[in-house]
Design a protein that fits this description.
It is a single chain. By secondary structure, the chain is of the alpha+beta class. It contains 3 helices and 13 strands; from the N terminus they run H-E-E-E-E-E-E-H-E-E-E-E-E-E-H-E. The strands form 4 sheets. Strands 11-12-7-13 form a 4-stranded antiparallel beta sheet, covered by helices on one side. A hairpin with a 2-residue loop joins strand 8 and strand 9. The chain is elongated, with a radius of gyration of 21 Å. The model has no long low-confidence stretch (mean pLDDT 93).
């Protein structure tokens, strides 16, 4: 039995939910999102909560059960509060700045990295060494943050690079003389 799948997803105040077949559409103060579940689960809306049940006892149905419930919960969270990923830059001369819809990153390369921010995601730089990625779609926010981090991931010797806020980097000892 899926522990996650068993819990119903409460519909917050100010959010309208529409279920038609396998498609769940959610509208809230921050926007509208939708999710189409596989045929392995049944989705119902009752008493101000969305419940997900597996169709059958196959392994795939049980896998989709918890995943579908989590996706629906992410829709509810996204249209009410949104999602946020914070990145920090460490290294001498490493910095970030927003110019219009382009994030300009100085990461020790011979050129400046220009990262085009996709639609539906907001990127801000409160400080030169901080990047904040916000949006209503959890997957898109996480993917944009991962794409930015990919330009210069943290290295294990000096810890230079782009890392998630609060991320621990296992440090290695350098060469001995």
């Amino acid at each position: 039995m899926s522990r996650i799948g068993k819990k119903p997803v409460a519909v917050p105040a100010g959010v309208t939910t529409n279920i038609s077949g396998q498609k769940v559409e959610v509208k809230g103060p921050k926007g509208a999102l939708s999710f189409t579940a596989t045929d392995d689960v049944t989705i119902t809306l009752a008493d101000g909560a969305v419940t997900v049940q597996p169709r059958g006892t196959s392994k795939r149905a049980r896998q989709q059960w918890g995943m579908s419930r989590s996706m629906i919960e992410n829709l509810m969270t996204g249209v009410t509060t949104g999602f946020k990923k914070e990145l920090e830059i460490q290294g001498v001369g490493y910095r970030a700045a927003m110019q219009g819809n382009v994030l300009k990153l100085s990461l020790g390369y011979s050129h400046e990295v220009n990262f085009e921010v996709p639609q539906g995601v907001t990127v801000t730089t409160p400080k030169q060494t901080e990047i904040v990625v916000e949006g209503i779609d959890a997957q898109q926010v996480g993917q944009v943050a991962a794409n930015i981090r990919e330009w210069r991931g943290p290295e294990p010797y000096k810890g230079k690079g782009i890392r998630y806020k609060g991320e621990f980097i296992f440090r290695k000892e350098g060469k001995k003389k």
